[in-house]
Amino acid sequence: IEEIRRCFGTNIRTAETIAREAEDMTLQARMETLLLPRIQDFSPYLRIEGALAPGALVLHPSVAAAPILHAALAHRWPGLVVFRARGFAETGTGPWKASWLNRQAQKRRQKEEAQLPILWEENPRQLAYHLQNGKRVIVALDDRSFRRFYPVDFLGQKVWLSPEPWEAAALAHAPLQSATICRDRDRVLQITLGAPYQISPENIHRAMQQWISTRVEPWLQLHPGSYAIWLAECRIRSTSAPHPLYQFDTNAFSR
Questions:
Q1: Which residues pair with 177 in a beta bridge?
Q2: Is 236 helix (H, G, I), strand (E, B) or coil?
Q3: Tens of pLDDT, residues 63-75
Q4: Whole-prediction pTM
Q5: How far apart are CA 141 and CA 19, in angstroms?
C-alpha cells in the first residue's frame, strides 16, 4: 500500500482498493497462464488493437498479464522472439534465493512455455541480431537481467532501466512499439499496440525518458493495479537483487 501511495500519489483508501485489485489481477493472470498452451484461438478471450510492424522491437512494462500478452502476439504473428525475463525466484540471493517449491514451479512453467509458438531468447546481445534478420522482438522495458542501466525518472521515483533494448533497436534500425494489456469492463483482455517509432543511437537516454513519460506512465496511472505487485516486489528486494529497480548507491551501475 505504501508503494502504491509513493508511486501513484493516492490516499490510503484508494491505495487499499488498488492493492486488492492488484492481488485479484495477479492471481487471475497466473491461473490463465496455466491454460496458455491449450489455447489455439485467443479471439474469444482478448482483442488486439493495432499491428506489429515487421522487425519491430516491442516494449512493455512487467504487468501481471505479460505471459498472456506474449502468447497472444505469438499466435497472431508467428516467429515472435521473446526476451525471457528472469524473475526474482530465479535471480534472488540471500533470503530471496529460490526455494525448492519455486524451482519446481519454474521447471513446470518452462515445460508449458516450450509448447508455445515462441522463440525464447536469454542473451541480450542477440536482440540486435534478431531485429536485423527481420524478427519481431518483445522485451519487458524494466527487465532486471540486462547488464547496464541508466537512471530514469519513473512514477515520481528515480529508477534504473537498461538502455540495451533501445540500443539494439537503434543498431538494427528497427522501429520501437509499445504494448499494453488490461481487462476491459466486459472482462475481455485488451491488447493495445502503439505506432512504430524510430530512434537514433545519439539520443538513447533522452529517448528512454521520453518513452517512459509519454507512453508508459500515462497508461500505468490509468491501470495502477496491473503494476503494483511488481513495484512492491522491486522495493522489497532493492537491497538483495543483482540489478534492483530501485538503487540508492549511484556508483553501483557506473560500469
A1: 58
A2: helix
A3: 989 999 999 999 9
A4: 0.85
A5: 23
